[in-house]
Amino acid sequence: MLVVKVGGAEGNALDNVLIDLAPRRDYVLVHGGSNEVDRLAEALGRPIRWITSPSGIVSRYTDRETMEVFTMALAGKLNTAIVSRLQSLGAPAVGLSGVDGGLLTGRRKEAVRAVDNGRVLLVKDDHSGTVEHVNGSLIQLLFEAGYVPVVSPPGVTPQGELINADADRVAAHIAVAMKADALILLTNVPGLLREPSDPSSLIAYVPRERLRYFMDFAYGRMKKKLIAAEEALKGGVTRVVIAASQPPDPVERALEGTGTVIS
Q1: Residue 121 has pLDDT above 90, yes or no
Q2: Domains of the chain: total
Q3: What is the extent of the structural domain holding 232?
Q4: Angle formed by the axes of helices 136-144 and 167-177, to 10°?
Q5: Which carries the bigger pLDDT value, residue 46 or residue 144?
Q6: CA neighbours within 13 Å on the CB side: how many for 198?
Q7: How far apart are CA 228 and CA 185, in angstroms?
C-alpha cells in the first residue's frame, strides 16, 4: 500500500499525478493546496502572512480568519475537484478532510516561536497543530469497500477545534498508521537539491541514519518534507521518496527510484 502526497504550490502538475494514480487501488492520496489558499485569501481580502521558526522552517500564519480560508480552499474546493477528476478517470475516489470521522486528531500548539527582524517571538493566536492519531479503521473500511481515499487537512482536536496540520506530516502519519510500503512526496522540484537553484544538484539517496545531516541542504518547505520522512521511517515505513510531479507517470517514476530516496 502507498501513501502519495502531492503539493499545492505553484509549479506542481496535479493532473499528471491523478492520471498516474487512476488505475491503481492501493493508495491513499494526501494533498496540500498552498497556492489555492493564497489565491482565495487574496480574493477575499485576507492576504497570507508567513512565519519562520528559529530553525528556518517557513509556515503559514493561521489565525481564525485564515483557518476559514484554509478550510474552504482545501477541504472544500480543491478536495472536491481532485475527487471529481479521479472519478472522471475511472477511480472510485472518496474525499475526506481530517475532521471527517475523526480521521486526523491532534492538539493545537499553545504557542509558535517565530523570528522577526532577528528577534524570537511567541505567536499565541496561531491555529497550527500536530496530528497525534489517525483513524486507520476508517481508511481500511473504504479500502475494503473498493474506494480510494483522498485526504486533506485540517485536523481536529478532541474538543472540536480545527488545526492547520502540515500535509507532508499528515501523509507521514497516515503511512505509519496504514503500515504503508512507501511514502511518496511529490513536489515542484526534482527532490532534495544541494543547491536549490540547480536541478542537476539532486541528492539521489539519503541513508536514514544521515537524514539529520542532510537537513542542512533543505530550504524553506523542503525541511518539512525531511521531517515528514523522518517521522515515517521512525514509524516503520521502509522507504520515502521525494520527487517531481511534473514528468509523466510521476508515481511510477518515484517508485522506480527517480528523485531523492530515503531509506
Answers
A1: no
A2: 1
A3: 2-262
A4: 70
A5: 144
A6: 7
A7: 9
